[in-house]
Write a structure and sequence with these properties.
Blueprint lengths: L3 E10 L2 E2 L1 H10 L5 E2 L12 E2 L13 H4 L4 H17 L11 E6 L5 H14 L8 H5 L3 H10 L5 E2 L7 H14 L5 E8 L4 H9 L29 E9 H6 L6 E10 L12 H14 L8 E3 L6 H15 L7 E3 L2 H4 L6 H15 L1 E2 L22 E2 L4 E8 L3 E8 L2
Helix pairs in contact: 3-6, 7-13, 10-11
Length: 410
């Protein structure tokens, strides 16, 4: 099997548009959560979300093309541009068929569906845009990216709820390993800060209602956590076959050495008791990499700020890493970004890779009162200089779907 490395990263999140803005905010422990501005929330119990407030689509997309894309596609194009520029990979006639795109989303074009449903009710079918269908289909994110760069290799989407971004990167890793492509643009994207999404998650009682303190609402692993904060954005990486990347002198963030994916077979929305499925997922990633658990330094946890997820992920980490678990640095960047659903795995993979590259463990903010049942080192509130050789990024989703990536610094 061939070796696979990451040569470029790109991110759009509530912390800002672009890699540097995000990294600076992460290290400073800055929250991107605020009051919802997209729609009137006066009748909603939840009034906070992680909106991307500095995004200008005209910086990345021709003006006439913008109206053909839902916001999740626009975010994907922007993050892909950052990743491609960072990588320096150029798609040519010679290599086009060996460069692919695998970018997914959890819900896709929900804003477009809501918008044109209102148009249909108000004025009939003729009020629907001819771009309606291409605007909302999830695989139009990789479709637009491939058209922009001329990438003619594998082109598809992974859709697995909140594990989408991680599955996308892991599946792209396997595509390169087995020789079906030499490079893949991979990750996740999402934009569903809408009445239906906020209302739907609110009636499930999944969201934080700490409306009076938006910046302090997402508090993974902390005793007073009361739910996740819905947010949006995109995280994209460029994966390449190692020898090809080395030959062209590319900067290498890390090697992808392990990928785990499992199912709980337990419940539609709740994780399996004690994180049984999550533990098997992390164990698979370690086993596939041939890496002893004691070699791992850092985990960017799924860490949603919900009572059961954080407890069961902690239990899964303890089960997987045993006596080494207390020595791990475990962080949740969702404490600053909120939960980007299908984009979260892509964004958190980018953050994990930047932590490896910079030698800094980013913090879990809003960690004020420890939960005695969550007993790991969550890098509370302040970033930490750290030598990180092996790092893991976890994502777990509705339907009991689990994904873990393991990276190694080269």
């Amino acid at each position: 099997m061939r070796r696979v490395v990451v040569t470029g990263v790109g991110v759009v999140s509530p912390l800002g548009t672009g890699n540097q803005k995000n990294w600076d905010a992460l290290v400073a422990g800055k929250s991107g959560i605020g009051m919802i501005t997209r729609f009137d929330v006066s009748g909603f119990p939840v009034k906070i979300a992680g909106e991307v407030r500095d995004f200008n689509p005209e910086d990345f997309i021709e003006k006439k093309e913008i109206k053909k894309m839902d916001l999740f596609i626009q975010y994907a194009l922007a993050a892909a541009q950052f990743a491609m520029e960072d990588s320096g990979l150029v798609v040519t006639e010679e290599n086009a068929e060996r460069v692919g795109v695998l970018v997914g989303a959890g819900l896709g074009g929900l804003p477009t569906i809501e918008r044109y449903h209102e148009s249909l009710l108000g004025g009939g079918y003729k009020k629907i845009s001819p771009f309606f269908i291409p605007m909302l289909i999830i695989n139009l994110a990789p479709g637009h990216i491939s058209i922009k760069y001329g990438a003619k290799g594998p082109n598809l989407s992974s859709v697995s709820a909140c594990a989408t971004g991680t599955h996308s990167i892991g599946d792209a890793y396997h595509i390169i390993r087995r020789g079906d492509a030499d490079a893949m643009i991979a990750g996740g994207t999402e934009s569903t800060v809408t009445p239906l999404a906020v209302g739907g998650f609110a009636v499930m009682r999944a969201l934080s209602t700490r409306n009076e303190d938006p910046a302090g609402a997402s508090r993974p692993f902390e005793k007073n956590r009361d739910g996740f904060v819905l947010s949006e954005g995109a995280g994209i990486v460029v994966l390449e076959e190692y020898e090809a990347a080395k030959k062209r002198g590319a900067k290498i963030y890390a090697e992808v050495v392990g990928y785990g994916l499992t199912g709980d077979a337990y419940h539609l929305t709740a994780p399996a008791p004690e994180g049984e499925g999550a533990a098997r997922c992390m164990q698979m990633a370690l086993r596939n990499a041939g890496v002893d658990p004691c070699m791992v330094d850092f985990i960017n946890a799924h860490g949603t700020s919900t009572p059961f997820n954080d407890l069961f992920e902690t239990m899964a980490i303890n089960k997987t890493f045993g006596s080494h678990a207390p020595k791990l640095m475990v962080t949740s960047s969702k404490s600053m970004t909120g939960h980007l659903l299908g984009a979260s795995g892509g964004v958190e993979a980018v953050f994990t890779l930047l932590s490896i590259d910079k030698g800094i463990a980013t913090p879990t903010i809003n960690y004020e009162e420890p939960d005695p049942e969550c007993n790991l080192d969550y890098v509370p509130n302040t970033a930490r200089d750290a030598k990180i050789e092996y790092a893991m990024s976890n994502s777990f989703g509705f339907g009991g779907t689990n994904a873990s990536l393991l990276f190694r610094k080269i």
